[in-house]
Amino acid sequence: MGEIKPLPYFKDRYKVDLVFYVDEIVQVLQDRFSQHGKPVLFLLYGKSTDSGNYSKPASFEGIEKFDTDLGTLHPILTECRVIKSEMELGLIQYANDVSSEAHIEVMRQAKPGMKEYQLESIFLHHSYRYGACRHCSYTCICATGENSSILHYGHTAAPNDRTLNDGDMALMDMGAEYNFYGSDITCSYPINGKFNSNQATVYNAVLKAHNAVISHMQPGVKWVDMHKLAEQTILESLKNEKIIHGDIADMMTRRLGAVFMPHGLGHLLGIDTHDPGGYPEGLERPKEPGLSSLRTIRELKEGMVITVEPGCYFIDALLRPARDDPVSSKFFNWEEIEKYKSFGGVRIESDLYVTAQGCKNLTNCPRETWEIEAVMAGVPWPPRASVTKAENGLPKA
Amino acid sequence: MGEIKPLPYFKDRYKVDLVFYVDEIVQVLQDRFSQHGKPVLFLLYGKSTDSGNYSKPASFEGIEKFDTDLGTLHPILTECRVIKSEMELGLIQYANDVSSEAHIEVMRQAKPGMKEYQLESIFLHHSYRYGACRHCSYTCICATGENSSILHYGHTAAPNDRTLNDGDMALMDMGAEYNFYGSDITCSYPINGKFNSNQATVYNAVLKAHNAVISHMQPGVKWVDMHKLAEQTILESLKNEKIIHGDIADMMTRRLGAVFMPHGLGHLLGIDTHDPGGYPEGLERPKEPGLSSLRTIRELKEGMVITVEPGCYFIDALLRPARDDPVSSKFFNWEEIEKYKSFGGVRIESDLYVTAQGCKNLTNCPRETWEIEAVMAGVPWPPRASVTKAENGLPKA
């Protein structure tokens, strides 16, 4: 494993006050903290509001010589994680810069005949070789054609192994991680580089929702309202295109937005892709379709980093029950929807930092259809000044 | 996660006799195997002779309705894994073909000024994009300069982050995995593409050992004897170069080979990089330096796949005690060894299949110093007919 580094190395690297070797822990804690009796160790133990699982508190040989407190630390540390420091923001911005560039590289190389996993490989390579990002925040979702309506595509049993066809849409949900801080970005585009009419319809519906949410975000705004704004914007676009008809407010009451967008609008992002703190003590997860998938329903606060990721999908398993229900069925133009049967879906996802007055988009990918078509045809995409493709090393972090 | 595939899909894909959904397991087992009373389930449970840990037997809700046998299956399945079928060999050969090509790609792109992790990224990308290998068998060891004497370099605390210098040796231990079957290959070469005299000395000592072992391998040969053959070959070369002096047999008795090669000659390879079966019931791990690191001491059998990976390293932590010991100290020419102080080390590793008459090398990398220099200068390396760089898909497996 190599030589053991001296203690000052770790003190300097991690900017901590005291450093000791692990096998000294019992002695050091006893020597330093026994003035007022048996020392109390505050351990991190709490429930993930996403999985329902509990975090495993730290342990070591001899821990029974101390009192432990399992309740105090978790809510405090979780709240610390919700509001990002400048240094944390810098890391998330860097991961976003690298991922944005890597997405553009993938976009440019994608061609009919390739395999989805080859796009994954290009993303990973670009992020690591040029961005020093050894890991991604999550398994890459490289979904094309019908697969783009499978929200968690890309896992071991569906390992991005489809061949890309002319006429497919691609939904690329990939984010690099740097020094443990993640990014989470989705780009959707036609594999052949040109949006056809149906593709542009669905894409623009989602983009309008994405932009509407971003333009409304600021401290004090309720995230549930942003989710509903995205749903409503998408429903309005689909109504304009005669894919659905009837009263939008009525559809919203019946939660029909969730037929097209069966996931939450976004989630906190940081050390975890789905960062904790979405449901602090007292906030309960909603029960209604769509809203029940929200990983937070908090009010926005300055310093939060949160994803904005509206989507519109044509999923048989959700359209079928909507059609079978006599009340919801009448809102849908089933003849028109038939044309989107094997369309899949579109998602557009950016990472937003909430500022005092509004928000800042940390993601820098082409979003307008004409921008995407131009970038895929080789037009340069303005790189941020902070990103260099230097072959020779880690950025000055 | 996508639609659940129908049962016949799994029956065909995994070539099994019967397929049911997981939630039917209790019912199906009871219905089909209760004729003679409570059915007995043979579960896989046994000790890893490497880690000392025990495998966790399979479990499911309702397993208490059955009798379980934890002892029968493990030795039988382990022995099945020691001898590879033709289909298994095909997968290991494919993983070797992809990895050999990827190593050559890395070799060609390596230049002073790059970072070690960039070589890792090139390997991963080549294996995935062109070989459909999503995973590697183990974390890539991309060690250059002094790092090449750190046997398990590349881990999270030493993440291949050094800058490549002109004059460094590189020790690249990387292997792609395909359909769960692995490869395990090490190439060592000078970063600037030209061996200097000291580099050629150490490299050729190791290559001679690598080739000597391969030329002796056949069913019935004891692996401990191969390990000793490698040690002896290396010691002889070092003696010719006046790095050590004295009687080789004497050095062997004193286990001084382990000062330069403090790891085993090789290990079984398959589903696991360190495949099980190295120490079946009755075989005890040796205690002597060097030999104690052997992951097997078996006799070779037709159908085994085993790595041959001799190495020669200059490790301060091992040379120091050898110097402090008045008896061993006199075998070393300390003035000469001083010249190799920051040399690091060399390892050459190939994957061998034991045949009825001898063995077959599954790895296809340039090994002679002149071959390596030529390949690094751009001379084509003869690809095997079985390997294609087709962009468009998985090989017909």
Protein topology:
Two copies of one chain form a homodimer.
Chain A: H1 7-14, H2 25-33, E1 40-42, E2 67-69, H3 73-82, H4 86-109, H5 116-130, E3 135-136, E4 141-144, E5 169-174, E6 176-177, E7 185-190, H6 197-216, H7 223-240, H8 248-253, H9 257-260, E8 305-308, E9 311-313, H10 316-324, H11 326-329, H12 334-338, E10 345-347, E11 350-354, E12 359-361, H13 369-376
Parallel strand pairs in A: 1-2
Antiparallel strand pairs in A: 3-6, 4-5, 5-7, 8-11, 9-10, 11-12
User: What is the CATH first-level class name of the largest domain in chain A?
Assistant: Alpha Beta
Structural class, from secondary structure content of chain A? alpha+beta
Low-confidence stretches of chain A: 383-397
Multimeric state of these chains?
homodimer
The amount of beta strand of chain A, in percent, is 5-15%
Number of domains of chain A: 2
String of helices and strands of chain A: HHEEHHHEEEEEHHHHEEHHHEEEH
Textual characterization of the structure:
The structure is a homodimer of 397-residue chains. Chain A is globular. The longest helix of chain A has 24 residues, at 86-109. In chain A, helix 6 packs antiparallel against helix 7 (223-240). In chain A, the strands form 5 sheets. The first copy, chain A, has a 3-stranded antiparallel sheet with strand order 4-5-7. Chain A folds into 2 domains: 24-70, no CATH class; 86-377, Creatine Amidinohydrolase. By secondary structure, chain A is an alpha+beta fold. Chain A has helices spanning 7-14, 25-33, 73-82, 86-109, 116-130, 197-216, 223-240, 248-253, 257-260, 316-324, 326-329, 334-338, 369-376, and strands spanning 40-42, 67-69, 135-136, 141-144, 169-174, 176-177, 185-190, 305-308, 311-313, 345-347, 350-354, 359-361. Chain A contains 13 helices and 12 strands. Chains A, B: This is Peptidase M24 domain-containing protein. Chains A, B: Residues 91-356 form the Peptidase M24 domain. Chains A, B: It holds the Pfam family Peptidase_M24. Chains A, B: Keywords: Hydrolase, Manganese, Metal-binding, Metalloprotease, Protease.
